[in-house]
Amino acid sequence: MPLPVWRYPFRDPVMHTLSAMTEVIFAATAHEQRRKLRLSPRHGFTFAFQVEANTRSRFELDVARHAGGEWELPLAVFGQALAAPLTAGATVIPASTANRGFVAGGRALLIDYVADSFELVEIDSFDADEITLADPTAATWSAGTRLMPVRRANMVEAPAMGLFTDDFAYGDVEFELAEPLDWGAYTWATTYRGLPVLPIHADTYVDPTVTLARSLMPIDVGTGPVTNVDLPAVPLTGMQFAYTAFGWDEIVALYGLVNALAGRLASVWVTASARDFVPVASAAAASTTLDVRAFGLADGDLPATRRDIRIICADGTVTHRRITGVTVPGAGVERLQLDGAIGGDIAPGDGAVISWLWLARQAADVNALGYWMDDVVETTFQFEGFNHDL
Question: Which of 96, 225, 277, 342 has the smallest number of CB atoms closer than 10 Å to its CB?
């Protein structure tokens, strides 16, 4: 018996969750060893539905029959509209296929929500701009018909349906894919000390938060004060921030990034892009020293997790450097000795941004991507720092 096809419209927001599984072995010194336990993440989709009249009756019957089993779930977030009509008997569908979830031997769905009609087709092969079908299409499809990749999926539980009227129902439904949804290899744009640098920045409409956590071991014998032992003796800087991807190209890059981070697995350099250092003297691009407004850098040693910086010069040049020493050349000034050239000319007040840079990993194995209007995706990233000897 063929699987039921989810033929009902997807309503905003559509939430796509990618769930990795990472084993993290912690040392008392806050060093870590991590191991990937899933070859690829699990994928979940949660979205709203609205059904009325005969569609509501059919929806309830479908749920009554199949809620506990597998469905053919079209992946609406990777869908696209046909640019031209498709005649019955067609064996090729013109379409953009890169990072759209199509696989040879898999399925795709042609669906016209207005006409309440659909056709499930089998994919024989595909290239960048067309899909070749295993069998010809049975119906004619007009321009604007939605084309979506399909995966087998389990309905997590039968949805609760609110009855707005006696013939109109609404609610939310959640599916978990039973087939893989793989992504292409991701290329990091920038690396520093052999590890990638996070390529995105926080949205400005939501304040990012930065924490300077410690890994404390409390000792309490019960008869006196509690003693906290800080074996790492370094700050484990964390950050949480919102990010929005606009348009298909940014969405593709976001999926690549999430897959490359692989939950808590990957180490990545992170910055809050704050103006942590304020230049007080001009410095040439080839200089390895930089004078900044004093704020206590020379008062003690820099912790191992807080000695790297990102320099964004006024001309857009970006470099990442390590502070190897700090001196005080005059009142109110601290001179940074860097392990390499600044990379671009710097002058006081020219708009250069110099920020702390630290090594971190994601705080959780689950990333949730929320879709609005098909081409806007909102998400939140949370990173935790760890001790390292890099």
Answer: 225
